[in-house]
Amino acid sequence: MEDNSLRPETLASLMGVSGSQLDSYIREKKTPPLDLLERLFQRIDYFPQWILFGTGPKQSGDDDPEFLDLEALADLPVTLVAAPMANGVEDAEPVEFRRVPLVAGAVAAGAEMVGREALKGWAVIHRDQIKGRKNLVAFTVDKVQGTSMLPTIRPGDIVAVDRDDLDPGRYKTPKIFLVRTEDGLTIKRTARRGHLLVLNADNPASGWIPLVLDLNDRDIKELIVGRVVWQFSSDL
């Protein structure tokens, strides 16, 4: 990022850091902590993607000002530094996490570029739980999904979907996918049988009837949004 209107001393002041601290971020090409970035975003009318990556529109009024690249934003590292434990002993082993964009369910099924207003926050996930997956987006499961996936997934859970993992046929046993149907988006355990997708619920008592979708002459991307690869439940 280069901009003569954002002199180093001005940028440091807006972020609430010293000039030497800002210089270390620039020289070492390190991403500042999320709280500093959020403070900066709130104080200036520059878009996060431009500040962090030097790409896309810079300010309101530039071309395509209302869109963010979800995959680029999700790839920002989050490192938890050593912190005091309850017994006063520091945990000296930093643990790396990834921030995954948290959006509305309908947005999760959309294109790579989504409106800034749709970015509701971040799901912070340990890297070991997502094992190098790149194109992730997270959303909260709403009540429309009902009880069909109990006890595996509950309304109110936060799930992350890998939008590069599109083919249930890769797996010997059915996995959980976010799927587009005529009635809207649904989370179901999905298997592929030739040109057919078979969607089943985990909760037999829900009354959900298995759904069969025909892939003939259709791109699988029209039906499969991605595989559910992570979830968080506040009830557990």
Notes on the protein architecture:
This protein is of the alpha+beta class and 236 residues long. It has helices spanning 8-15, 19-27, 34-43, 48-53, 70-74, 105-108, 127-130, and strands spanning 67-69, 77-80, 95-102, 113-115, 121-126, 136-140, 158-162, 175-181, 184-193, 196-200, 211-214, 224-232. Strand 9 and strand 10 (196-200) form a beta hairpin. Helix 1 crosses helix 2 (19-27). The radius of gyration is 21 Å and the shape is elongated. The relative contact order is 0.11. The model is unreliable at 81-94 (pLDDT under 50).
Topology:
Layout: H1 8-15, H2 19-27, H3 34-43, H4 48-53, E1 67-69, H5 70-74, E2 77-80, E3 95-102, H6 105-108, E4 113-115, E5 121-126, H7 127-130, E6 136-140, E7 158-162, E8 175-181, E9 184-193, E10 196-200, E11 211-214, E12 224-232
Antiparallel strand pairs: 1-4, 2-3, 3-5, 6-7, 7-12, 8-9, 8-12, 9-10, 10-11
Q: What is the gyration radius calculated from CA atoms?
A: 21 Å
Lateral strand order in the biggest sheet: 6-7-12-8-9-10-11
Euclidean distance between termini CA atoms: 43 Å
Kindly report the average pLDDT value: 76
Assign a percent range to the helix content.
10-25%
Strand content: 25-35%
Question: What summary fits the major beta sheet?
Answer: 7 strands, antiparallel
Can you tell me the residue ranges where pLDDT is under 50 for at least 5 consecutive residues?
81-94
Compact description:
With 236 residues, this protein is of the alpha+beta class.
Summary tags:
single chain, about 240 residues, alpha+beta, seven-stranded antiparallel sheet, three-stranded antiparallel sheet, elongated
